[in-house]
Write a structure and sequence with these properties.
10 helices, elongated, 2 domains, alpha/beta, Rossmann fold, about 20% strand, four-stranded mixed β-sheet, Flavocytochrome B2, Chain A, domain 1
Length: about 325
């Protein structure tokens, strides 16, 4: 409280975001021992400085990299990201894509006021087409980035859209997002009355709030996706793929009437001095004397003769084919 009053303009929606986030955190019993706030650049990035939590104020667009790093080295902490649409969806857009894909257990609370407020009111990534701003005096010519569509393309995901006007719904979205196991994103449609609202013709923040009520309506229940005029929660999980049944290798039956060999006896048949070339594989003894691998002056691979090659041949791509065509002359004891 020593840092209040805050620095935001009168009527700014960020104050409502900060208040409701703080209320839910307190209700959940989170504090400076088990939670950390990570913020980006912009008006929204100042929220972490007013919270009694360990906080990291990151470079522009890098809030998610810092948050994911913290969660990686301290998985016991509850990591909360507080930032805006400009920081998260513009210079930080690439990190948003891949952080959501990796699905770390962090919660992102995005103050989406559809404008670059801190720098004077330029068009941002979520500015609606046709909006007049400093950089689009004739109206924004491009379609906005649809965060809801982008973040619900493939499971798992948790995406909620709410506004600073719909307070009960707003608080519910924050709570569910903080309790979600995995990456969760709350898109909070907010107002910037001074650098956006007045250019749109609104005289007060309350008029912008009523405009939010006209633009959006709340949908009940869980959804896979949200339409652009819907407020609600869209979430999906990935069903764990069933594990393949491990095949138990059946040991081949070895006839008991075969001549028994000990390993020491097997070593005797190493091809030297005109002796036969025997090898053992899976309990059977094969006569490889006629194999081309052991013929000629150099008698290649004679170092294999007289040995049990079961382990060596199991990792060879065609090991079995090299012995099965030769006669079985015995079995290992």
């Amino acid at each position: 409280m020593r840092r209040f009053p805050h620095t935001w303009c009168p009527g700014c929606g960020i104050g409502a975001v900060l208040k409701n986030v703080a209320m839910v955190i307190k209700e959940l019993g989170w504090n400076d021992q088990n939670a950390v706030a990570v913020s980006g650049i912009g008006c929204s990035g100042r929220m972490s400085g007013y919270m009694n939590l360990d906080a990291v104020h990151t470079p522009h667009g890098r809030v998610l990299t810092a948050a994911e790093a913290i969660k990686t080295v301290r998985p016991d902490l509850n990591v909360i990201v507080l930032s805006g649409d400009g920081d998260l969806a513009s210079i930080g857009g690439n990190h948003l894509l891949h952080t959501s894909r990796r699905n770390p257990d962090i919660t992102v609370l995005c103050n989406d006021n559809e404008i670059y407020g801190l720098t004077g009111g330029q068009a941002g990534p979520t500015t609606p087409k046709g909006t007049k701003t400093l950089t689009s005096p004739r109206g924004e010519p491009y379609l906005p980035l649809r965060l809801g569509r982008m973040l619900t393309l493939q499971p798992p995901y948790f995406y909620a859209r709410t506004t600073v006007y719909h307070l009960n719904h707003f608080k519910t979205c924050i709570r569910e997002a903080l309790l979600w196991k995995g990456f969760s994103f709350v898109d909070i449609i907010s107002d910037c009355i001074e650098l956006n609202g007045r250019r749109l013709g609104f005289k007060t923040a309350h008029q912008m709030f009523k405009w939010f009520d006209e633009r959006f309506h709340i949908v009940k229940g869980e959804r896979d996706h949200l339409q652009e005029n819907e407020l609600g929660i869209a979430k999906a999980v990935v069903e764990e793929a069933s594990r393949p049944i491990e095949k138990v290798e059946e040991k081949p039956e070895i006839p008991t009437d075969l001549k028994p060999f000990t390993l020491q006896e097997l070593h005797h048949f190493d091809g030297t001095g005109g002796k036969s070339i025997y090898i053992a594989y899976k309990g059977k003894v094969y006569d490889l004397s006629t194999s081309p691998l052991f013929q000629g002056e150099k008698r290649m691979r004679c170092h294999l003769a007289g040995k049990d090659l079961t382990k060596d041949m199991d990792i060879a791509p065609h090991g079995e084919d090299l012995v099965f065509k030769f006669p079985v002359v015995g079995r290992l004891k």
